[in-house]
Hints:
By secondary structure, the protein is of the alpha/beta class. It contains seven helices and ten strands. The radius of gyration is 16 Å and the shape is globular.
Amino acid sequence: MPAELIKLYQENPERNKIEHIVNVLKNGGIVIYPTDTIYGIGCDLFNKKAIDKLCWLKGIRPKDFNLSFICYDLSDISNYVKRIDTPTFKVLKKALPGPFTFILESNSNVPKILNVNKKTVGIRIPDNNIPRMIVNILGNPIVTSSIKHDDDVLEYNTDPEVIFEEFKNQVDIVIDGGPGGNIPSTVVDCTQEEFVVLREGLGDIHEYA
């Protein structure tokens, strides 16, 4: 059965559509959604079958999956990471919501969720109301990954209708939130004494650190 294409506006996402998306996620669905950078693909953090399917779509084994979660706000993070020191928390508070993935030490909840011993986890709080409203109503984060394009020049698809045509037989929902970007988030490792930028993306951490 082909995926649904659902139009949403990030300024004011329609709650009934968001609730439908949440129900699909709870039932193990895979959803493609807009963020403040590129379009992402993800599933419910607590649905192992969905995570296995997401890994299969990405062509990777679950134990090799570099986990990133989309959270609603900073209060969600404490459920999945170890205690964040005050200087790091101040940077996160200034930079989020924003185009960053912060790598933090995971706490004991993460291995329980995925049956994989993951010592770190990437945290995303995108500056886009659509994914944040989804996880807020869902009640927990979604596991997120990027959509890579086969073309080496155009690395990320930006047109949701093109994305829909490409993935309509692989996922359950594609959210049309308008044109996406083609620059991913900046990935910042916060597990050392000093921040280390693992991937230069849209965000400039030096504005906040």
